[in-house]
Amino acid sequence: MQKILIVEDEKAIANLIKINLVAEGYRCTCAYDGETGADYIEKETFDLILLDIMLPEINGYELLEYVKPIGTPVIFLTAKGNVSDRIKGLKLGADDYIVKPFQIGELIARVEALLRRYGKINKKLTFADVEIDMVSRTVRKAGNIIDLTVKEFDLLVELVQNKNVALYRERLYEKVWGEAYMGDTRTLDSHIQRLRRKLNWEKEIKTVFRVGYRLEGGA
Ligand code: CA
Prior knowledge:
Blueprint: E1 3-7, H1 11-23, E2 27-31, H2 34-43, E3 48-52, H3 60-67, E4 74-79, H4 83-92, E5 96-100, H5 104-117, E6 124-127, E7 130-133, E8 138-141, E9 144-146, H6 150-161, E10 167-168, H7 169-177, H8 186-199, E11 205-208, E12 212-215
Parallel strand pairs: 1-2, 1-3, 3-4, 4-5
Antiparallel strand pairs: 6-7, 7-8, 8-9, 10-12, 11-12
Helix pairs in contact: 2-3, 6-7, 6-8
The structure holds calcium ion.
């Protein structure tokens, strides 16, 4: 699932964007000031950032400087008629901008276009003899459909997208369940067990002592 950070101090706008992007299948986090935005950018990885320019604490330009080295695509949200702001934003390295007030359909189209440009919309993922279709959310192993629950599917995608990387339980849990990890590993562990069983991946999904899990091997 694609993760989008919305940094916008007008809560009504931020929440409206969030509701619409969530309905399109994105996962969204809102920050209502620049400092909170910076905190999120530091702690989590996002596939795309929607960034307002006029923000309390740290403004959009300053935040952009912060984002640039990480390479996350950015769309600026700018006030109507403020041409110099838009130019400045693009010069500083924003990928696109959208003028407020905007049609939500236009925003979604720009988000999709930018993700596509960055190659972030992968329709298919493969690992060994397992093929994951992100659009129809189906999984095949050696050509046979494997039935997975929503969370099992999301967990599988997370593992495959980070193959050969040790993933912390907290990170996995927060990515897949979309809520703060409270230290209870049972839910995550039981989902891992089921994935191992369903895919016959007892060896592939390694338990990493004191860390979490790592998917090992693959092409
Ligand atoms: Ca603002």
